[in-house]
Amino acid sequence: MRENWRIKVSVLAGASALAFSALTAVPAVADEAVGDLQEVQMPEGVKIVEGFAPAAGADVPSLEPTTDAAFSAAAAAKAAPANTCLGSTAAYGVTGCFQHNGDVVWAGDTKKDGMSAAVGVYTDYGRAAEVCINKLGVNTWATCDKDYRETGNVRLRVLRYDGDTGKFYQPESWSGWIPVDGKY
Question: pTM here?
Answer without folding.
Answer: 0.73
